[in-house]
């Protein structure tokens, strides 16, 4: 005889428990990026600054892939987002600061470790601000210099100087200034173009492929010089855009005020 109760709605009813897990592919790429940052620190401690900078640049490439792979395979998760942020803090925050300090900043005592700490602290602040402002920042622009680009400025300078066998003692204060510039620019409100509105799924003219091939050829002429030069240009591009917008009387903030324009849909969430 049925007593009128539904076993599916009873609080003590046995329900099959769904096991929680993490997505393997994007998180393995994130772990590889984390290893790049850790490897950079270890190599710097062993005096292999050429390998230390390569580790940071390798982490940059891997960091640009994990999010795209997650979106392409529909494996985005809150765990992956947190993992990516922590990996960025090591690879683009702690690693460049420590490599720069061991390379030459320790020669100027407290000023050296202050510069390294300011860079590391600004990277942490920039990543925290990025995480909480994700929903309100126009995704066509970064709010402040992105941490991978800041790391590329510091690591690229060390890579180029090591490759050219320059006298380290003469580069102490330039390294000090560059480390502070990269760190403080991360926490400004200066807009830096993010390239996120460029879709790889769209068709492009044949000339675009030729330009990509030429770009690869130019980089291979002397990778340290070309890559460092590109990141120097990018590192100053935000200020150029900021003052150009200001001169034109346009909005300089990247905090979006409207999502109603058709061309802006999908760029603010």
Give the helices and strands, then pairings.
Blueprint: H1 24-45, H2 49-72, H3 78-103, H4 110-132, E1 141-143, H5 147-163, H6 172-186, E2 191-193, H7 206-219, H8 223-247
Antiparallel strand pairs: 1-2
Keywords:
mainly alpha; 8 helices; disordered C terminus; 62% helix; two-stranded antiparallel ribbon; 269 residues; Four Helix Bundle (Hemerythrin (Met), subunit A); globular; 2 strands
Q: Compute the number of helices.
A: 8
Mean pLDDT: 83
Q: Mind describing the biggest β-sheet?
A: 2 strands, antiparallel
Instruction: Report the radius of gyration as a whole number of Å.
Output: 23 Å
- The CATH topology name reads Four Helix Bundle (Hemerythrin (Met), subunit A)
Q: Which homologous superfamily in CATH is the superfamily? A: CDP-alcohol phosphotransferase transmembrane (TM) domain
Instruction: Give the low-pLDDT segments.
Output: 257-269
């Amino acid at each position: 005889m049925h007593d009128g109760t539904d076993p599916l709605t009873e609080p003590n009813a046995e329900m099959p428990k769904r096991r929680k897990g993490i997505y393997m592919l994007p998180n393995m790429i994130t772990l590889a990026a984390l290893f790049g940052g850790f490897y950079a620190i270890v190599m710097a401690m062993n005096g292999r600054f050429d390998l230390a900078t390569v580790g940071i640049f390798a982490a940059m490439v891997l960091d640009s892939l994990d999010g795209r792979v997650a979106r392409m395979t529909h494996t985005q998760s809150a765990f992956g987002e947190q993992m990516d942020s922590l990996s960025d803090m090591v690879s683009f925050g702690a690693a460049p600061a420590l490599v720069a300090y061991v390379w030459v900043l320790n020669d100027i005592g407290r000023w050296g470790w202050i510069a390294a700490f300011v860079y590391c602290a600004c990277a942490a602040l920039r990543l925290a601000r990025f995480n909480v402002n994700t929903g309100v920042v126009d995704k066509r622009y970064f709010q402040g210099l992105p941490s991978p680009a800041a790391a590329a400025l510091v690591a690229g300078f060390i890579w180029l100087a090591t490759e050219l066998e320059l006298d380290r003692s003469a580069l102490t204060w330039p390294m000090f200034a560059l480390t502070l510039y990269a760190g403080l620019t991360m926490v400004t409100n200066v807009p830096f173009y993010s390239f996120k509105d460029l879709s790889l799924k769209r068709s492009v003219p044949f000339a675009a492929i030729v330009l990509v091939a030429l770009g690869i050829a130019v980089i291979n002429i002397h990778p340290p010089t070309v890559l460092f030069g590109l990141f120097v240009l990018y590192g100053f591009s935000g200020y150029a855009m900021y003052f150009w917008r200001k001169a034109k009387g346009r909005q300089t903030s990247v905090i979006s005020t409207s999502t109603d324009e058709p061309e802006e849909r999908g760029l603010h969430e």
